Amino acid sequence: MAEANVLPVPTDGNLSLDVDVKSVKGTRKLSFTTVEATPPETPPNDGNIPESPSKSSSQGILLQSTTLLEEEADHAPAVSADTQTKEAEPQETLPLSTNQTQEETKPEAVSAPPGSNGVHSKVTPQDLPPVATKQLDNITPYSAVPASTDGYQDTVVAPPKLTAVPQAAQSLSPATRLKYKLQHTTDLIVCPGVYDGLSARIAQAAGFETLYMTGAGSTASMLGMADLGIASRTDMVRNADMISNLDPHHHEVIADMDTGYGGPVTIAQTVNQYIRANVAAFHIEDQVLTKRCGHLSGKKVVTNEVYLSRIRAARAAIDHAQADIQLIARTDANQQLGYDECIVRLKAARECGADVGLLEGFRSHEEAARAVKDLAPWPLLLNIVENGHSPLITVDQAQEMGFRIMIFSFAGLAPAYMAMTAAYEKLRREGITGIQGTGVGPKVLFDVCGLKDAVAVDTNAGGEDYKSLA
To answer: Looking at residue 29, what is its pLDDT?
Structure first.
């Protein structure tokens, strides 16, 4: 706000000021205009009232000052001399409503939150997921935003529609890239199952853009245990973090989240950890906490109410973080309650904000195709486990049915088991592994695991320790 002060000057009006006031807050520039100050008529003084100093001044100077913060001065528009000598005009001040404060401002631009999806870039409010711009008080974290009761119309900023996969997709987070593929393409996203760093690297080298971190494979690889809900949240987050960040600029990871590892509060925390781990999508299911692999007999599921509470907790956590990670609602109810109950649960999960559906354990090709039609146009994920409880469906068949994502959970684990079993048995019987002559040695394996990239980083930084490996 401008400030005006009247200072006494000599009666001849000849005054020249050159004022440049600086402070820690900025530089205050002063412009002034000489004005005639005509004293009002005063009644005769009977000697009992002292003369007022202000009445004795016959002339004054109106000084108008404007403060500009130093960091804003470089970007401030130039002010002409005519503008500087103009007398300040009072500005109308609009009254604030009871629901507004002076602190309420619209954000100009924000930076992508670190850890949300691993990529930092300058974005504007139009790039963000829909969020209410009104400041709401006393809202419990992860709770739904209540409807306005004071007549204030909440405004929503919608994200822009992308029209094509840009070459600059490397600058997008894995979650945003996967979200784009689901919303703006019709391609079937085929994902091989991976469970550790080596299997993930091999899948990347084979040309797959999206990988699936299997819970069964992770449990077997990390813990040497069967998939009976033994792997903890810590185990799964650590594995997902490692796999997702091997090459986050070119690959996306869909990760198993089992049951969420607890109630709504625990689920919300788990979702946040998956977001920070750079996971692109996760599926959460309706089995009881003492769960098992989806292709084992005797599965039991929780009530639909408990299942939907898991979906709501996950959705609220994603919205609170303003993340693009995709929520996949999985139901294992087909074995215990039948197909119709699965459709009821998935439709309800869709209404709660799930981005993709997963009906685990189809009993026939016809049932799989029917599910796509019953839930259209909602995207569905198809899980293929060879030699499991479901029939084999090929990529071409899944594409024709209309599935959007297809994961092969045991694509890495089963072949690795077969290959290692053969090599170990040969070693025990014959004293050799059979690897000799294949050309597969340390250099080949390390190249798959990023040896050349690591050497390039060291060399470009001026290091000389690994030059001989280039």
So the answer is: 52
**What was the pLDDT predicted at 170?**
57
Residues 6+ positions from 382 with CB-CB distance below 8 Å:
362, 368, 393, 398, 403, 405, 406, 407
- Between CA 224 and CA 116 the distance in angstroms is 31
The CA–CA distances, whole Å, from 34 to 41, 53, 81, 90, 150 equal 22, 20, 15, 19, 50
DSSP code at position 467? G
Contact call for residues 314 and 271 (beta carbons, < 8 A): yes
Structure confidence by residue, pLDDT tens digits, 19-42: 554 444 454 555 544 444 444 455
Please report where in the chains the tokens 């009666």 appear, as a residue: 11
Reported as a single tens digit per residue, the pLDDT across 297-332 is: 999 999 999 999 999 999 999 999 999 999 999 999
How far apart, in whole angstroms, are the C-alpha atoms of residue 357 and residue 381? 6
What the block records as the tokens of 248 is 């986050």
Alpha helices (H) along 395-463 = 395-401, 413-430, 442-448, 451-460
Residue 167 corresponds to which amino acid?
Q
CA distance 79 to 23: 21
- The pTM of this model reads 0.66
Cβ(360)–Cβ(294) below 8 Å: yes
Token reading at 128: 């963000």
How far lies 358's CA from each of 215, 328, 339, 343, 345, in Å? 15, 7, 12, 10, 11
For residue 225, what are its two tokens?
Answer: 């245990």
Question: b/e map of 16-47 (b: 16 or more CB within 10 Å)?
Answer: eeeeeeeeeeeeebbbbeeeeeeeeeeeeeee
pLDDT in tens, 76-107: 444 444 444 444 444 444 444 334 444 444 44
User: How many Cα atoms occupy the beta-carbon half-sphere of 266 within 13 Å?
Assistant: 12
Mind listing the pLDDT tens digit for each residue in 347-387? 999 999 999 999 999 999 999 999 999 999 999 999 999 99
Whether 343 and 375 have beta carbons less than 8 Å apart is answered as yes
Among residues 280, 251, 286, which one has the least CA distance to residue 357? 286
pLDDT digits (tens, 9 = 90+) for 220-239: 999 999 999 999 999 999 99
Instruction: Judge contact between 326 and 351, C-beta under 8 A.
Output: no
